[in-house]
Amino acid sequence: HSTVAKKLGKSFLPDSFFSLAALNLDNQNEAKIMRVLQAMFRIPIKNYLKHKRKDAPTILFFDDLDGILKTKKITEMFLENILTLANNKITAIIVCASNKPWDVESKILKVFENFLYIQFPSDKVRTKIYNKLKRIPNLKTVIDDEKINLMTNLTSGYSYATIVETLKKAITKMKSQDRKSTRLNSSHMSIS
């Protein structure tokens, strides 16, 4: 809230902030995802009717939008709800994040006014990511200092989420190839 207030002025404090991540919807069926989204989109309407203030928006944050919009039906419902808010002049700020914006349908992207593109992690940042991941107890034995440079080079152009996803796949591949293997190598990391 404080960041929004600084950017937009003190009189533009949000009424409420709600967040939904695709991670929370893993293994959920289409109907369940649609119920959750409908509930989220009802919040700004209720707040608007309650306050009748255009300077007190509700902020809805959707993390991993490509993961939330899994089906055509969910995508259509999401778009319909955004347009309903806009057509009824309901004051809401909708923020979406995606590691794979190319997987989000263009008609969804067209309704957003602003885009902020964040660069993929540099070599230095990826090295820091692997050093932090190395501290996780079950990864400590798999990632050694010698392999961090290799993994950093192999994951050039990857987002943080893709690095973690690739690392999980590599560990699964390592375990399936050789049950006794305890260290990742380049053949394990060759997963696109």
Q: What does this protein structure show overall?
A:
With 192 residues, the chain is mainly alpha-helical. It has helices spanning 2-8, 30-51, 65-68, 72-87, 106-109, 123-133, 137-140, 145-154, 160-177, 186-189, and strands spanning 16-21, 58-63, 92-96. The chain has a three-stranded parallel β-sheet with strand order 1-2-3. Helix 2 packs parallel to helix 4 and helix 6 (123-133) packs across helix 8. The two termini are 38 Å apart. The model is unreliable at 1-14 (pLDDT under 50).
Notable features of this structure?
elongated; mainly alpha; single chain; 192 residues; 3 strands
Give the structure's gist in a few sentences.
This protein is mostly helical and about 190 residues long.
What is the number of beta strands? 3
Helix content: 40-55%
Decide which structural class fits the backbone. Answer: mainly alpha
- End-to-end CA span: 38 Å
Tell the overall outline.
elongated
The DSSP helix count reads: 10
Mean pLDDT: 75
Q: Which runs of at least 5 residues are low in confidence (pLDDT < 50)?
A: 1-14
Largest sheet: 3 strands, parallel
Strand order of the largest sheet: 1-2-3
Radius of gyration: 21 Å
SSE pattern, N- to C-terminal: HEHEHHEHHHHHH
User: How much strand content do the residues show?
Assistant: 5-15%
